[in-house]
What does this fold into?
Amino acid sequence: MASETYESPWTNDGVDLFRKTVRQFIDREFVPRQGRWREQHHADPEAWPLAGNIGMLLPDVPQEYGGGGGTFAHEAVVLEELARAGVHFASSIQSIVAHYILAYCTEEQKRKWLPLMARGELSSAIAMTEPAAGSDLQGIKTVARREGDHYVINGSKTFITNGLRAGLVCLAAKTDPKTTGPKGTSLILVETQDLPGYRVGRPLEKVGRHGQDTVELFFDNVRVPASHLVGGTEGMGSFQMMEQLVYERLSVGVAAVAAMEKAVDITTRYVKERIAFGKPLIEFQNTRMKLAECRTEAYIGRIFLDDCIERFLKGRLTPTAVAMAKYWLTDREFHVVDECVQLHGGYGYMSEYPIARMWADSRVQRIYAGTNEIMKELIAWAQ
It folds into this structure.
C-alpha cells in the first residue's frame, strides 16, 4: 500500500483472506515459472486449472455459474497481487470475457461456458483490434455474414492477448458493413477448437510483458452458430463494448496503482543498499526528493482508485470517471516507474532487475483498453 496507516475502504476480512490465498499461490506456483514464461512468450497451459482450483479465475462471477461469488474487490486483489509479483497472467482477460457472457448471453450459454472458464478448463480472449483499427473500433473490417443458422466470418485481428490457446474468442465484427457508425457492429462468441478456417499466428515480439502471449487471429470463412451472437440482436456490439469497457479500464487502473506502489517499494530498498561516493544513495538529497514525489503520486493514485472501486461496487462509476482513472493512473504509472529506473542508474536498464521489466511492461498501459488520447476525448466531450 502507499502508506502503512492507510487501508483501502473496499477491503474486509473476507477480501483480506482471499488476498492471502492468492499471494501465497502466486509466490509458490507462478513466480518460479516467470523466466520460462518470458522465454516462451506465454504461460504454461497447466497454469489455468491451477489458478482455477484456488478461485483466482472469475472471483466476481456468481457461484451458480462456477465463479467465486465475490465482487470486483476480489478481482482487484488478483490484479494487485499479480502486479506486485511481476507476473504476467491474463486472468483479467478471462474476467472481461466472462462479464460479457454474464451481462448479455442466454442462461444456457452462461452455464455452458462460465464454469469451464472459472475452472481454467477454457481460456478466452477478446478480439477487437485490427491491423488498421485500434482505438477506432468503428473502422474494423472483419465481417460476419448471416447464412441461415450460421455467421460466416472473414477478417483478421491483431494484438490479441491470450489468443494463443483461447478456446473461446469474443469477436467484434461487422454484421452490417453498409451501416456507418456503431450500429453495424456486433459481438460473436467463437469456439475455436478444431474450427475450420480459424488460424492463430505466432506470438508477437513485444517491448514488454514477455510472459504473456499476444497474437494475430485469422478468420477464413469461419462458420459460427448464429445463436452465438452476443445479446441476440445484431448491431449492439459497440454499445455492449462501451458498457463493459468500464470494467476493463478500471482493471487497468488497478494494475497501474499496484505497479506504482511496487516500484516505489523496491526502489526505496535499493537506494538504502546501493553505495555511491562512499554513502547510500538515500543520503543524497535528490534521491530523497524524487522518492518523495513518487511516493506521493502513488498515494494520490491509490486514493483516486479506491474511490473509483467503491463507486463501481455501488454501480455509480461513470464512463467519464473511469476514462479519467485509466488515463491519469497509467500516465502516472509510467512516470513513477521511469523515475525509479533513473534512481537505479545503469542497473535500472538491466532486464534482470525487476524495475527494468516494470518499465517495459508499464508502457503499453497507456495504449490498450483505449489509448489515453481517446480517454481525454471522452472526458472532454462529456463536459
Summary: The CA atoms of residues 155 and 175 lie 12 Å apart. The radius of gyration is 21 Å. Strands lie at 124-127, 143-147, 150-161, 168-174, 185-191, 198-200, 214-225, 275-276, 279-280. The domain at 13-121 is CATH 1.10.540.10 (Butyryl-Coa Dehydrogenase, subunit A; domain 1).
